UniProtKB/TrEMBL annotation:
This is DNA ligase D polymerase domain-containing protein. PANTHER family: BIFUNCTIONAL NON-HOMOLOGOUS END JOINING PROTEIN LIGD (PTHR42705:SF2). Residues 30-288 form the DNA ligase D polymerase domain. Pfam families: LigD_Prim-Pol (PF21686). InterPro entries: LigD_pol_dom, MtLigD_Pol-like, NHEJ_LigD. It comes from the Bacteria. It comes from Planotetraspora silvatica.
Length: 295
């Protein structure tokens, strides 16, 4: 029999289930602990989800078992969860439109955590009050190291990117991906064209630094850092700040201090688990605040 617990979250009633199920077997991390993490991180995470159509990666039986991406809000989604209907050209499910959920509040975040939605992914644009897509408000660079390169080399490239962005009047903020790479975000108020701008900057750095490639082809990436500028395509999403990741341990996509980036000399220095991220937020607050605050 499925164990269920009724709780009230900010005035909303939710039924939480299978709280003792272990979702991270290597660390014994349970579904209850996943929900607890998202509840406690919500004060800083919600501003980065606010207004953004949600894609989740769900792991009903834990990170070592089958998973699936979900864009369309489930049929059983409570009526109080905000949803927006948006076109999805090229959908693999042959759908013309999808009803996306939007995580604007704590009850919605807890609802999805209870679905074993371990990973939260969002685009670099938001929807307006009526659900209409707005121009991009964020520029993102996804740095992916090709072995034997690691996040150490990603940090070197991040500093190069930061300096170029500053010359263009853009302030950026780093975070780990929670996997092997990292991302840089910058607030963007220059209308459409983020992908073209990001591609041009990536190509400029590629021409000046042998460590960098702007090409996705695997054959050119060993020992180099691929600057994935294509994440700025409106149809794509990137893992949200403070989202957990489905690794052996409950790692998190973690905002960083530039001092940590500049001094990184071994990959393990920039691996943070859920409990460590909660402690970091208590110490530093939201390191992503300047580029991620809701409008």
């Amino acid at each position: 029999m499925t164990e269920k617990v009724l709780v009230r979250v900010d005035g909303r009633e939710l039924s939480l289930s299978n709280l003792t199920k272990v979702l991270y077997p290597a660390g014994g991390f349970t579904k209850a602990e996943v929900i607890d993490y998202y509840t406690r991180i919500a004060p800083v995470m919600l501003s980065h989800l606010h207004g953004r159509p949600l894609t989740v990666k769900r792991f009903p039986n834990g990170v070592e078992r089958q998973s699936f991406f979900e864009k369309n809000a489930p049929a059983h989604t409570p009526k109080w969860v905000r949803k927006v209907t948006l076109p999805v050209p090229g959908s693999t499910m042959n759908r013309e439109k999808i009803d996306f959920a939007v995580v604007d509040d704590l009850p919605t975040l807890v609802y999805y955590a209870n679905l074993a939605a371990i990973e939260f992914h969002v685009p670099m644009w938001r929807v307006g009050v009526e659900g209409d897509p707005l121009p991009p408000d964020t520029l993102v660079f996804d740095l992916d190291p090709g072995a034997p390169a690691t996040i150490v080399e990603c940090c070197r490239v991040a500093v190069l990117l930061r300096d170029e962005l500053e010359r263009d009047g853009l302030e950026c903020h780093p975070k780990t991906s929670g996997n092997k790479g990292m991302q840089l975000y910058a607030r963007w108020d220059r209308g459409p064209g983020t992908a073209d701008y990001a591609k041009g900057l990536a190509q400029r750095l590629e021409g000046a630094h042998p460590l960098v490639t702007s090409v996705m082809a695997r054959k050119v990436r060993p020992g180099r850092v691929f600057i994935d500028w294509s994440q700025n395509n409106p149809a794509k999403t990137t893992v949200a700040p403070y989202s957990m990741r489905a690794n052996s341990l409950p790692t998190v996509s973690t905002p960083l201090l530039w001092d940590e980036v500049e001094k990184c000399d071994e990959p393990g220095r920039l691996v943070f688990t859920a409990s460590e991220v909660l402690a970091r937020v208590e110490e530093h607050g939201d390191l992503f605040g300047p580029s991620g605050s809701a409008p």
